[in-house]
Specification:
The protein has 365 residues and is α/β, with parallel strands linked by helices. It has 12 helices and 12 strands. The strands form 2 sheets. Strands 6, 7, 8, 9, 10, 11 and 12 form a 7-stranded antiparallel β-sheet that branches. Helix 3 packs antiparallel against helix 4 and helix 5 packs across helix 6. The longest helix has 35 residues.
Amino acid sequence: MNVILDTNILTRDPYFKNTDMQKLISLAKKKIIDLYIPEVVFNEFKSQRIQEYNKTFSEYEKKLDTLKNKTILSTERKILNDSIQKFNESKDLLFKSLDNRLDNFTKTTNLHIIKNDINDLNKMWDMYFTGELPFKNIKSREDIPDCFIYLAILNINDPHVICNDNTLKSALDNTNINTYTTIDDFLTKCSTYIQNAINVRNQTELNEIQFFLCNNTNNLETIMKSLLEHELENALIYDNSIPDDNHEGTIEGIPSIDNIKIDVSSYENNGDDFFSFNFSCSFTNYVEYYIFKADFWTFDEKEIEGISIQDWNDHYFLAEEEMDICCNGTISIQIKRTDEMFNKEEYIIEPEDISFDNIELSLNK
């Protein structure tokens, strides 16, 4: 959808901070709409701001000069001269700030500036001498800018024009172009289209995220390695073959894992920008457990082989044994979506965006 802004819409919110303008900017950033401003409008808006600043600064400078001329004290004159110098420096900074604001607006919204061509100039003169709208009268010079704006708009396919200039709006209405008096008017009347476009955009983004995650599992497995190793540090493992009273043992320290495998077919979108896969891995590590002394002495040599023991108390040994361990679980990834990230070839996944769920440990027999 091609949306065009007229000067009066920009003038209402020259700092682009009102809620409706922010909504419009967001739609342009997400490419739900294509935002256009005629070059005449852009230059007129900038010129108005410069005139506004110059007027304010001129009035203030005159007051400072008046104060300076009234005093004969050199100290006071110096203070006022310094103030005027700093004042002029701040004026230059303000003009630079205006340029930066307009540049940022242009880049953020992917703004299109509509330029007039020689054909528009010829048409303008024809309309000027006939008094055709948006000219209010024949040879009405003050309406020349509006005529150029009108002709620039006609060069855009299916434009939606937000304009509160009655004469320009009447000229556009005569050509069956969609016009709106305010940004809120546009957002309200086009809400169904906008919401549908947002839904399509959202699904497109989700598809892109799925494609990226499913085609970058090697990178994800590398990021997982250290995180999973620390997740399993001193973790409990349950298996009937562990000769502990509760058939449980504790993984000793931080294991070393090298063969993580993500199951791409298990991909799920869990909502709120959380996505998950099932994963599996195996590793060899020492496991500690407590064994009843009387039970230990019933083991044959083959069962005792590889088990290190030390006294824990009168009834139990603390045993340590190297075991092959299988790990299965779910990795959850949060993708922090931004408008900028979809302009890149890949997304950055930070370690803090990853968590693990449903981890199950068992012995690989």
